[in-house]
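Q: Hi! First time doing this. I have a protein sequence and I read that you can turn it into a structure. Is that right? Here it is:
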Amino acid sequence: MTEISTVFVEGTPRLALDRAGSGPLVLFLHGIGGNRSNWTAQIEALCDSFHAVAWDARGYGESDDYEGKLDFGDFARDALRVLDRFGAETAHFVGLSMGGRIAQDFCARYPDRVATLVLCDTMSDFRDSMTPEKRAEFIRLRQAPLKAGKEPRDIADALVDSLAGPGADEPARRRLWDSIAALHKESYLKTIEASLSFDRSAEIDRISVPTLLIYGEHDRLTPPSIGEALHRRIAGSELAVIEDAGHLSNIERPEAFNAALLAFLSKHRDRAVARRTESAGRTAE
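A: Yes, that's right. Below is the predicted 3D structure, encoded as structure tokens:
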């Protein structure tokens, strides 16, 4: 049984992380309705060869909430704090949905700190990647009910139905439901507002690190066609479509997802390097 420990990045806000293993750093970034527990199966799959770390983004899980509006770039600045916490000069970034957008934003801001990118069930912007009808549906299911007084658990059933693929089993659906029910309402609303204006589409062609794109076959929010478009724009990128998976491909089909992820990261393992030789001991904290 893999022993996963929880550690914290001190500061404002304090960030909670799950971690296991040692070696090159892999940082997992969850989606807008998730938390660090979404990546448990991936931490277990990678920890024999990598230092696998999953965070609760600010305002999620055990990470602190924060004052004022959210600037989407705050997530990238927080991720930089995580790399520095573990003495990593560069890291492998794995981001799903919102996490993929955070990874793109980080890469645009701090390209020298990125070893590889794994972008899962994600997009580069809301304007061009979503039709007006899809954007309206996104808001209707998430933002409007909460502003009308409902709580995250009240919208969980509808969101699970909209995100899970037709083959998702009950344990996968339950994990997704639990993540949504655990959302911090006010922080979630601020994240939705900041996400709707996110746009890194102009920087996609500039991505020069090895990149893997993973999409669920039945993802209705970010269908494989979005991955195919990114694949054409990111030089040398790879595309994997996970059969019979919806938007949460890592939770719905973890074995297939992990196989694609591990094959890719193994090829590029040593691109992620520590800043100082003594930092190797810090990864075991």
